[in-house]
Input
Amino acid sequence: MAKIRVSYKNMRKIHGIVFVLPWLIGFILFFITPLANTIKYSFHNVGVADTGGMVQKYVGLQNYIDLFKVEVSSQSKQFLRIFSDENLNIFVNTPVIVVFSLFCAILINVKFKGQGLARVIFFLPIVLGLKVVVDLIMVTTGGDVADAAVSERFDNGMIIDFLLTYTFLPLKVSIFISDLANNVFLLLSQTGVQTLIFLAGLQSINKSLYEVAKIEGASSYEVFWKITLPLMSNISLFAFIYTFVDMFLKSSISTEVYYFAFNKNNIGVGSALSVVYLFNVLLDLLLLLLILSRVVKLNHAAK
Output
């Protein structure tokens, strides 16, 4: 019996399909039906019938119109404003988190005595979650001390005055840096997985490339821009997408969906908000991929 020979290229495709297959099966079994129902409910007023069970009344696009013209959030904010603020916040903070994660991974990847202990100390609060660590500190040392140590914020006015006085940065940039300083604990708590991803990528780079670069007289700056960063491009793309989606999942919009669907018992508007939220994430992801692909092309053209 003749053996079936599969080319290396086709074998890689088969391996990719097998790798994705568990997620695909789970998506079909557990997500397709709820997604279809959510889209259907967004075009209906959903209530409880007198005899029990669910009653639906078709209203077309009225739930979507009410969402942006009539309804307000649990914080009494218009949803158009919420979506614009969330999108701006995510597009600004995603590059900051990814760059900070890469910086942390590079520092941790450097060989030094006590490297293992330093990694445990660095990653333990991130893996457990910053809030969990704060709660543990509050239990062991007292709530006031922990609150003062972790929740203390920098004086915005002092930082802005310092930047405007001793640097050439404009006011908007100074305010942005001041906001980053105030949210340093939040940013740190969101860099754990990305740092691990970058660390794995750095350790997968062939060490002989760095040895050849040193023999040729390349500086550390040139090694980073010519070897490390290009070889980390695919991992950087994955880190960007992961951070982008993770920030959307943690945004206030997801809590508003629960608020409308269950607290206000307005399933129609809550479903409409879910659908708008989903398409907003997909469009932003498409825009992010276009921007990153453009940056990669410009980087290759410059070389």
